[in-house]
UniProtKB/TrEMBL annotation:
Pfam families: IF3_C, IF3_N. Residues 35-104 form the Translation initiation factor 3 N-terminal domain. It is found in: Cytoplasm. It comes from the Bacteria. This is Translation initiation factor IF-3.
Length: 233
């Protein structure tokens, strides 16, 4: 393989070093880089298919090597002098990059802050309903903002709201924790509960549970084995 040393040139700038580091890390290429015959420079700094440094070679030689290896010559650092190019299967690279981006978007977790409003003198049935919603939110990996709304004379009894918030936090302590302690905000008292599980973990568990339910539905009822003696001829 044609090889020239890098020591005879002292013009290696930050762009070159960054591009070569990219090749070792397997980083991403900018959108639609120039490849093969679209590259219009006299010479390139070539990086092999495994990330090895080949050196500065004429463009014609780089294209010849690409054809020899049945790969593409891809310009990965156009602003370097000379530009840095890498030998790779560009079609395969684009496909794998698209799949990785799709998977990353699929697994991307956004923590959402849900809100639940209660009254200081809430009745037991409504409390259980509201608590059920809080439990569901925490299981999903979301934070929950609990707001106690005071009206009229209730504003003179903030301890009622405080005790209700403490009760709710204790009831769901296996799923969440007090991230923001109760504090008065005008006519309201606010507390924020954070989930013990991360959003990604909650999403993974939800997918596993969904897959298990689907497999159970598709499996159908098990077939019972017959233990009857065969009839005599």
């Amino acid at each position: 393989m044609y090889r020239r040393g890098w020591s005879h040139r002292n013009r290696t700038d930050a762009a070159v070093r960054q591009a070569v580091a990219w090749c070792y890390r397997g980083g991403s290429i900018s959108a639609e880089p120039r490849i093969n015959d679209r590259i219009r420079v006299p010479e390139v700094r070539l990086v092999g298919p495994s990330g090895e440094q080949v050196g500065i070679v004429p463009l014609a030689k780089a294209l010849e090597l690409a054809q020899e290896y049945d790969l593409d010559l891809v310009e990965v650092a156009a602003n370097a002098r000379p530009p840095v190019c890498k030998l790779m299967d560009y079609g395969k690279f684009k496909y794998e990059s698209a799949m990785k981006a799709r998977e990353a978007r699929k697994n991307q977790a956004h923590t959402v802050i849900k809100e639940m409003k209660l009254r200081p003198k809430i009745d037991p049935h409504d409390y259980d309903t509201k608590k059920g919603h809080v439990v569901r939110f925490l299981k999903q990996g979301d934070k929950v903002k609990i707001t106690i709304m005071f009206r009229g004379r209730e504003q003179s009894r903030p301890e009622l709201g405080f005790r209700l918030l403490q009760r709710l936090a204790a009831d769901v302590e296996d799923l969440g924790f007090i991230e923001s302690n109760p504090k008065q905000d005008g006519r309201n008292m606010i507390m924020v509960l954070g989930p013990h599980k991360k959003k990604t973990e909650a999403m993974a568990e939800a997918r596993e549970a969904q897959a298990a339910r689907k497999a159970e539905r598709q499996g159908g009822a098990p077939v019972e084995e017959s233990h009857e003696e065969p009839a005599e001829a």
